[in-house]
Amino acid sequence: xxxxxEKKLAEMENVMRLQTDVIADLxxxxxxxxxxxxxxxQEIESYRMDHxxxxxxxESESGSRR
Length: 66
Known about the structure:
mainly alpha
């Protein structure tokens, strides 16, 4: 192999290692975002249940006043 070829090969291997590191970092970030999203979905569901309960109470009170 020529020196030029070996340099190019080493450069390509380095780029591939860097790409692998970037992909690993992105996967970690994505995992964190998915966890955050799951928490937000649970909070939204909780707020939705609270809203539905309060609306039912309001409707019940307004119906009993009639």
